[in-house]
Amino acid sequence: MSLEFNKIAAGVLAAALGAMVIGKVASALVHPSFPAKPAIEVKEDAPVAAVPGAAPAKAPAPTGTDAAAGKLAFDKKCSTCHKAEKGAANAVGPALFGVAGGKKAAVAAFAYSSGMTGKGGDWTDEDMNELLWKPASFVKGTKMAFAGLPNDKERGDVIAYLKSLK
Ligand code: HEC
Fold first, then answer.
1. pTM, to two decimals
2. 119 lines ligand 1 (CB under 6 A)
3. Which of 13, 82, 125, 127 could form a disulfide with 93 if both were Cys (CB 3.0 to 4.6 A apart)?
């Protein structure tokens, strides 16, 4: 009786051990491994493609009219490339004395981009506002490597300053 019990107990034990071993081996064999990089990446902030034919964004109306504040902003942000005093020579950009209100791309001896020469017309307040808001979107392929003046007050002040140069 007790021998029979021992045999059964040993059998149960062996079966349990066997199950454990099989479990370990099986999990080692089929352990799922994930690639470090997913095959398809879903970018959450992928840019939304521009709708073809949609009107390009327009610059907001400038709010500043302070030519003195405009000169300070000009000295900080534009004077690396532009001189503005009467009779000043061209630099990286054309000399800007008298440019506001005058013909576009008309400064003598300055090699404009074809985008700028092709623009045509005068530097009205509206066009100046567009240029200074986002130069590269107003003039395709412009040589003016400047991001623009997003601040409506500052942009207006700079336009007022440019108009005072005459
Ligand atoms: C990194 C140099 C650079 C900076 C900074 C820069 N510009 Fe220009 N700008 C240019 C160049 C170069 C052109 C000629 C663009 C072309 O031919 O496409 C130009 C063109 C212009 C024109 C048109 C001139 C014309 O004869 O028709 C105006 C107006 C102007 N810039 C104003 C500004 C003002 C105002 C700022 C500051 C807010 C500024 N720019 C900052 C380089 C610069």
1. 0.74
2. no
3. 82
